[in-house]
Structure formats: structure tokens, C-alpha cells
Amino acid sequence: MDIISVKNLTKKFGDFIAVDDISFTVQKGEIFAFLGPNGAGKSTTIKMLTTILKPTSGEVSLDGHDPSHDALQARKSFGIVFQDPSLDDELTAYENIEFHGVLYGVPRETGRERSEQLLKIVELWDRKDELVKNFSGGMKRRLEIARGLLHHPKILFLDEPTQGLDPQTRNHIWSYIQNLNREEGITIFFTTHYMEEAEKVAQRVDVIDHGKIVAEGTPEELKKKTNAASLEEAFLSLTGHDIRDESASGADHMRTMGRAWGRR
Amino acid sequence: MQAIYIIWLRQLKRYLRSKSRIVGSLGQPLLFLVALGFGLGPIFQKAGGGNYLDFLAPGVIAMGILFTALFSGVEIIWDRQFGFLKETLVAPVSRLKIMIGRTLGGATVAMIQGVVVFILAFLIGFRPEYLTFGTFLLALVFMFLIAVLFTALGTAIASQLDDMQGFQLIMNFVVMPLFFLSGALFPTEGLPSGIALIVKIDPLSYGVDGLRHALTGMSSFGFGTDLLVLSLITGFLLFLGSYLFSKIQI
User: Fold this and answer.
1) Tens of pLDDT, residues A180-202
2) How remote is the C-alpha of B172 from its chain's centroid?
């Protein structure tokens, strides 16, 4: 059964086409990797799937709900760890987690148990009462992941969740996520630049480049198709060796969107 | 309900933790009270206006609330830039509830600010004979209305802005005119007709007038008019703010 289905999805910012007529599906209970170089359209797609950006055209269904028309119902079906920071610096680590738990209706007792478990996994339990503004970049990242895993939705979006983390932490986090997937049947939709990570955990992969989907299949199928020894080689042969521009920062992006709005 | 509560609580915690913001935002009202209250007091008295500090203090209290409330609404821009806004916008909580939580939080903070300015004024000599516990409660009602009105206005404006560049613009073209043209500093009787008209359009005029009536018994529009106009505009801005907030994209 398809829990995510995307048909002819397009997003334009002014003249720039960030996502160009893509279609794909994700099955219930699957671990799905959405791979692509910087600026390929990954985050824009995730934003449209998670109700915070309206598509220019196309259809999306999340657990049977359309994120642009039935946003509240769609929001009940997923959780997300964003690529860029989304913590409140003026709150403590624990307060950030607590805030999330209340918004997502996690029962108090469950919330308390899971917070402790998750904060221990990301090794922040000892510092849970410190203000987030005193945390390093890596600590903030770990806290975001712990917070994102606090409630157990049907679909979990992870946008470059392990960016900048050491291998130990990455391992812990991925085994926790795989466990969630196995035990509770949570569908995982993630992006990453660590190809070995995708090769290890993803059951199916879509590769997006310049706003279009260029390949789709299991990691094995993609390797076979491109005659590559690893997913990384397959990825490079699919998307080329050119270095892409860094994706625009949040503020740049907002400016672009501001212009796009102005034109309408 | 719990979602509204936790959003309200967050606003309150953020306010109480920013000591510099609290102290900083008390400096300006204090300066107005001391410099204008004592500086213009003798002239006001000679012109037959009575005690200027009594006249001025409700205006400065309203100013404290206006600044804090609008700032609380505008905080959405910060939340957007620091990314926290996303966290609330993807949560399975209706935008209306988020807006209510934020507005109540901002309004609570602004009311605290108003009460603190009242205490400051009291300390430097604002003790109208009219004031009783009952009229103080009525003053709190007006403080609340002013606070909600301008938090909602701040939210509505901030929903349309992407970054802090526009903030200075808001200060110069919204906040300052609202304050200076509200009858907070001068009596609204006998003004040139152009200014008199602007004063009548400025929603803060009714807040100041209502507050002044509650604290000192002086009023130019009448207590009923103040309450009615203030409630209507507050209702409208809450509606507008909620609508614009619900349209935010990241």
C-alpha cells in the first residue's frame, strides 16, 4: 500500500523551477532514501510534502490526505527532522522536547520515558536543563533528532538527519530508527549525502537532480544499472561529477520566495 | 488547550529570561515620565490642565504595553529566521490555536510590562485620588485589550515580512505614529482638525483614553465608546492576524 504518493509535482519560484514534474510513491513500512546533490530539489519536495510550502501544480497524498488542502489531517500523519535548525535557543533542551511532546499530544508518562531514553542515546541527558543557545552545532543537531523521534507518527521525514555527526552517534541513531521501522512499522523518508549510509539502511532509493527524478530502485538495482561497485559510484555516474552550488540559506530562500510572491 | 498553554508558557519564559529586554524596555517609559512629567508639569498646570503626571502616566503605561505587545507579535520574524516557526507550523495543531497561544502569551507579557510601568509611575508620584482597587481592575481590562490588539497587529504585520529589514520600518511608520498621535502626551480637545482626525483614527487613542478614565477619572471619548471601539478593532485584528498567520509558508 502506498502511504506517500506524488504525481506530477512541480514547484516554481518565479522563473526558477525547483521541482520539475516529479512522480513517485513510498510504500507503507518502507525505508526510502531520497538522494540528490545540493540544490536538486530535495528539501523543496519535503517542504511540499510536509504542508509548509504550496506546490505550483501536481498532486500529493500523505496517508490519504492532501497536504495543501487538508493540512491539519496530513500533519497528524507525520513527524519531521528538518535540515536546518528549528530549536528555540532560549529554552532548555528538555523544554524544547517537552514543547514538542505537548504539541504532538504525546501522553505525559510516555513522553517522560522516551525523552530520557532518547536524550541518553544522543548523550544529552546530563545537559538537559541547559539553554540550547549554549550548545554546540553538533549538540543542537543531536537534540533535534531526539526531539523528532519523540512521537511515533506513521511517516517520519528525516532531512539530512546525521549531517555533521560522528560515526558513533550516527550508528546509534540509525539503529534506533531501524528499530522504530521494524517494531512499529513507521515509514521512513530520508535524505542524506552519506551514500554508504543510504546503501546500508535504505530499502529503496530515488535519485533527484535538477528537479527531476533520474533513477529509482533498490540500492542493488541502481548499482547494477550503472555497473558501479557502490551506491556512491552509482550516484556519481547518475548525477555527474560537477560540483553544485550550495543550496541557498533559509534567509536567501525567503528572499527568493518574497520576490516570487511579489510577482504574483 | 494544552497546546495553547505550552505556547503561552514559552512566550512567558522567553520574556522572563531576557533580563536585558525587561530592563531596556523600562528605561524609555521612565524617561518619558520623568522628563515630560516633571518638565512640562508646570506649564500644564499654568494652562489649567491640572496635574500633568496624572494625565501623562496612563499614556506612558499604554506606550509600554504597545511596544511590548507589538514586539511580541513581530517575534514571529525571529522564529522564522531561527527556524523555530517550522517546528510549530508542521505540528498537528491548528494555526488558530497557535495564533491564540502566541497572542495570549504576547498579551500577558505586555500586561506585565504595563503593570511594572504603573508601579514606576506610582513610585515617582502618580497617585490620583480617583484610583481605587475597583478602578484598577477596570484598568487591567483596558491593558488587556490594548495588549491583545497590538500583539495581533504585530502578528499580522510579521506574517507578511520575511526578515528583520522591515522592522525599522515598522518602528518608524507604525509604532511611533501610533504612540505620538494617540493623545497619550496631550489632551485631544481643541486640536487642529487634521490632527484631531488622525487621533480619532488611531486605535491607541481609545486605549489611552479608557485607561486614563479607569485610573484618573478623566476621559474625552467616554468610557463606553472606548470599550466598544477597542473591542471591535481587537476582534478585527485577531481575525486578520489569524488569517494571515494561517497563510504563512516557509
Assistant:
1) 999 999 999 999 999 999 999 99
2) 16
Q: Which residues on chain B are in Cβ contact (under 8 Å) with A102?
A: 2-3, 5-6
Query: Which residues does residue A33 pair with via DSSP β-bridges, in sequence order?
Result: A190, A205
Pairwise CA distance, residues A180 & A175, whole Å: 9
This model of the complex carries an ipTM of 0.88
Query: What total number of domains does chain B contain?
Result: 1
Q: Using DSSP, state whether B144 is helix, strand or coil.
A: helix
Question: Is A238 a domain residue?
Answer: yes
Coil vs helix vs strand at A4:
strand
Residue A180 buriedness (CB in 10 A; 0-12 / 13-18 / 19+): middle
Tell me if B10 and A88 make a contact (CB, 8 A cut-off).
Answer: yes
- CA dist B37 and B33 (Å) reads 5
Stated as kind and residue range, the H or E segment containing B147 is helix B133-159
Domain-embedded: residue A94: no
Residue A87 domain flag: no
Residue A173 phi/psi, 5° resolution? -65, -45
B191-219 pLDDT per residue, tens: 999 999 999 999 999 999 999 999 999 99
3-state helix, strand, coil in chain B (%, to 5): 80, 0, 20
- A115 within domain boundaries: no
DSSP-derived 3-state class of residue A141:
helix
Residues 6 or more apart whose CB falls under 8 angstroms from that of B5 comprise A102, B101
**Binary contact (A52, B80; C-beta < 8 A):** no
Name the residue range of residue A26's domain: 2-77+153-263
